């Protein structure tokens, strides 16, 4: 083994006791061993001895010093010593002194060596302590290392297990996603196949619809030709009927004289087709429209002194109060007039704006239906029912509250639209108010008390009939010429105590004053202009879309 070269090791080998065995350890490995020396004579100085040995050495030195002093005192007289201690020394005494000094020096050297040995012993003890501490630290570190290795193995195992679980979860997630994607792909493929089939079916339907459209266009052309022919025949019939009417003719000068040259003081009102004036012709008070789209034509009506039904119901200034008997008769007359218009054999006329303001009352409170500016003429089907005619428009007209809601929504005008107006009365929710009152059995709360003591049974019949006429859909409304007429005629008979005038044809016959339609007189400045204006009159009264 190689001898250590460090200063501590060299100093320890130099000052350590000769018979001490010393082990030198580095990194937990023994690198060198110094064996003890058994022959103590080869050692000049005893080191690393215990305290008893050093005490013996000191005692021996003291004993030698005492012997030297005693010998010195015996050999040298006391007087000599006291008087001349130095000069009287003999050579033997000088040698003794030198020996004593030598012994003192040796003792000092031994003391110094003892101190160094003690220091080395202390260092050796400290090194042993440090070695023990180092060994304990090494042991502690080894235990920590083992513990850390155990923990590392445990955590490594946990990490491996966790990675394994994560990998398995990711694989399961990917497997599910793949399964979902496969299902979506299958569904998408199925939908695509269905879409392709639907597209092919739609293409076939399109071809079929185009064929049907072409066929319908051809049929429409044929129907349009038939319609034009029917309308032409209708126009000829209307022209013939109008030309055969016993209409009185007035010149422009007669109209000027009758209205005091169209004086503003005689102006009755402003209509949709011109200004209305009051005049006096042939000892008869009339009301006429001065202009109708063209200056050569004017219409002359019988003047209605009692104004409109709206004025009477609202108790306007100068308007008469209507009893319940008069109101029942007015309802019957209005039903008769609308039935006559709706049931014309060639074409049906729909008024389109039935309301109290357009129902005029003459001096005898006979109702006259006026304001045909919004009326329409409907062709009737030979196979359909009496009220089967209709007209479609994208711009419905009328007065809110009296206007057919189905006509507002669909733009389809039928005779049943007049039925709704026949049963309606402002305000807009009056039908709901009446229905609620009837359900409560309190109909008297909504009956106009100004009509007198109205029989509650008759009022209930009329209210029930009005509610049926104001149904939201036209299919649920009754027929004016059938069910409605039978009810109102019976109620009017009971109210007046006598039957009304005969059939509607007698009411509206040629040469008679009609109870339901205002009489009209054509006023022209000459016969030629009147003949040329017949078609214009028809368009005014029976305009088509």
In short:
This is RING-type E3 ubiquitin transferase. This protein is α+β, with helices and mostly antiparallel strands.
Structure explained in plain terms:
- The protein has 545 residues and is α+β, with helices and mostly antiparallel strands.
- Among the domains are: 7-155, no CATH class; 307-517, Transferase(Phosphotransferase), domain 1 (Orthogonal Bundle).
- Helix content is 55%, strand content 10%.
- It contains 15 helices and 13 strands.
- A hairpin with a 5-residue loop joins strand 8 (359-361) and strand 9.
- 20% of the residues are buried.
CATH superfamily of the domain at 307-517: Transferase(Phosphotransferase) domain 1
What is the molecular shape? rod-shaped
Question: Roughly how much helix do the residues carry, as a percent range?
Answer: 55-70%
At CATH level 2, the architecture of the domain at 307-517 is Orthogonal Bundle
- Helical segment count: 15
- The percent range for strand residues is 5-15%
User: How big is the Rg?
Assistant: 71 Å
The CATH top-level class label of the domain at 307-517: Mainly Alpha
pLDDT < 50 runs, ≥5 residues: 39-51, 75-90, 382-386, 498-545
Chain-averaged pLDDT: 72
Order of helices and strands: HEEHHHHEEEEHHEEEEEHEHHHHHEHH
Q: Could you tell me the number of beta strands? A: 13
Read across the widest sheet, the strand sequence of neighbours is 3-4-5-6-13
Outline the biggest β-sheet: 5 strands, antiparallel
Separation of the first and last Cα atoms? 133 Å
Secondary-structure content class: alpha+beta
What fold name goes in the CATH topology slot of the domain at 307-517?
Transferase(Phosphotransferase), domain 1
């Amino acid at each position: 083994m190689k001898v250590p070269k460090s200063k501590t090791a060299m100093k320890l080998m130099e000052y350590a006791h000769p018979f001490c065995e010393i082990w030198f350890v580095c990194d937990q490995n023994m690198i060198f061993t110094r064996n003890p020396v058994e022959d103590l004579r080869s050692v000049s100085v005893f080191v690393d001895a215990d305290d008893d040995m050093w005490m013996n050495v000191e005692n021996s030195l003291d004993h030698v010093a005492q012997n030297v002093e005693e010998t010195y005192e015996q050999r040298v007289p006391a007087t000599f010593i006291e008087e001349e201690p130095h000069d009287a020394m003999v050579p033997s005494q000088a040698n003794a002194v030198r020996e004593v000094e030598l012994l003192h020096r040796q003792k000092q050297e031994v003391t110094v060596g003892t101190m160094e040995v003690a220091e080395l012993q202390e260092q050796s003890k400290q090194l042993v302590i440090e070695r023990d501490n180092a060994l304990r630290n090494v042991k502690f570190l080894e235990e920590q290392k083992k513990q850390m290795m155990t923990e590392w193995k445990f955590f490594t195992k946990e990490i491996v297990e966790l990675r394994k679980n994560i990998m398995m979860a990711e694989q399961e997630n990917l497997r599910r996603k793949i399964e979902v994607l496969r299902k979506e792909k299958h569904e998408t493929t199925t939908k695509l196949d269905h879409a392709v089939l639907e597209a092919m079916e739609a293409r076939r339907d399109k071809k079929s619809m185009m064929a049907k459209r072409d066929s319908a266009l051809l049929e429409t052309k044929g129907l349009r030709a038939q319609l034009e022919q029917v309308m032409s025949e209708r126009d000829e019939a209307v022209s013939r009927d109008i030309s055969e009417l016993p209409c009185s003719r007035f010149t422009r000068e007669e109209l000027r004289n009758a209205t005091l040259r169209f004086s503003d003081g005689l102006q009755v009102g402003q209509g949709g087709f011109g200004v209305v004036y009051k005049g006096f012709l042939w000892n008869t008070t009339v009301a006429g429209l001065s202009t109708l789209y063209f200056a050569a034509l004017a219409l002359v009506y019988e003047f209605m002194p009692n104004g409109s039904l709206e004025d009477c119901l609202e108790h306007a200034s100068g308007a008469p109060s209507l009893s319940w008997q008069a109101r029942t008769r007015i309802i019957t007359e209005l039903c008769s007039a609308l039935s006559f218009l709706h049931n014309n054999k060639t074409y049906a006329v729909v008024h389109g704006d039935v309301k109290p303001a357009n129902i005029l009352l003459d001096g005898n409170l006979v109702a006259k239906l006026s304001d045909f500016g919004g009326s329409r003429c409907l062709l009737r089907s030979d196979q359909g029912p009496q009220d089967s005619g209709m007209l479609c428009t994208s711009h419905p007209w009328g007065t809110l509250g009296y206007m057919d809601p189905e006509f507002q929504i669909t733009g389809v005008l039928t005779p049943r639209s007049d039925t709704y107006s026949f049963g309606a009365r402002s305000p807009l929710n009056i039908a709901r108010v009446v229905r609620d009152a009837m359900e409560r059995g309190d109909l008297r709360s909504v009956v106009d008390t100004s009509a007198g003591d109205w029989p509650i049974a008759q009022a209930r019949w009329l209210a029930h009939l009005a509610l049926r006429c104001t149904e939201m859909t036209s299919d649920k409304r009754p027929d004016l010429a059938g069910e409605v007429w039978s009810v109102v005629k019976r109620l009017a008979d009971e109210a007046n105590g006598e039957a009304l005038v005969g059939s509607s044809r007698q009411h509206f016959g040629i040469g008679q004053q009609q109870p339901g339609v205002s009489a009209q007189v054509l006023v022209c400045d000459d016969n030629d202009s009147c003949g040329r204006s017949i078609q214009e009159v028809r368009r005014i009264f029976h305009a088509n879309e």
